[in-house]
Amino acid sequence: MSSVPPSIPSPVRIKQPKRADLVTEDVKRLITARNLKPGDRLPNEKDLQELFGVSKSTTREALKSLEVQGLITISTGPSGGATIREVPLERTLQLMQNYLFFQDISMKDLYAARTILEPELAAGAVANLTDEQLARLEANIETCQPACGSNATLLDQRQSDLDFHDLLAEANGDPFLRFLCQLINELLRRLVVYSTDTPADEHVSFGCANVRCHTAILNAARNRDADEVRRLMKEHMEEAESFVARLNGCLDGRLILDSEMAPQLRGFEPR
Description:
The chain is mainly α. The chain has ten helices and four strands; from the N terminus they run H-H-H-E-E-H-H-H-H-H-E-H-H-E. The longest helix has 23 residues, at 200-222. The chain is globular.
């Protein structure tokens, strides 16, 4: 009895990577192997062409890809070339929002994360705060003192309230925790919108609460009381979430454009 041969599946076509993409990966390997740091130069275009055995156009395409990723800057002229840079937080934020754009992320979700992360960020900053940083925290509180004004002015103050948290982040020695909190703060700056018919008094109340909480946190930080700072920050995050809900705050579900990317985040100094 003859058996029926099994059906043979159609061959799967495996897409071959572009040569420029392969060179991009090779340059990343080169950066890793040579332990290059921000400010270090890559070999010039001609040397890269010879090293990887590719054309000028392929080399330039690979370098452009690395520039878009934020890993290098490219300058022109006789002394130009590619220089290693620290990937900007703004670029990371933009890529993260590309992902979040297709997710159902709410303000409640963001504040759930902030309530966990911000108390630890603030507590971890206490031992490292300098007199100059304490003075900047105090100056920020003065800037955020609520005053009568238009809703636009009051919204600007909500933006400045976040600077207080960025200043604390500067003093925290944990780079990953600092990164997470800075990323969330910048997301709030760029994408949170409030209902246009919210009474100005609600924003004033929010501002007063923030000033009160920030002042208490600053006083505890001056006393180097990390446990008290942690407790106060947790209360602050819980209260802030309730205010945002009352103000009908929500995330603007849009993609962040290249034209919106600032050279450096306010209040953030890379380490």
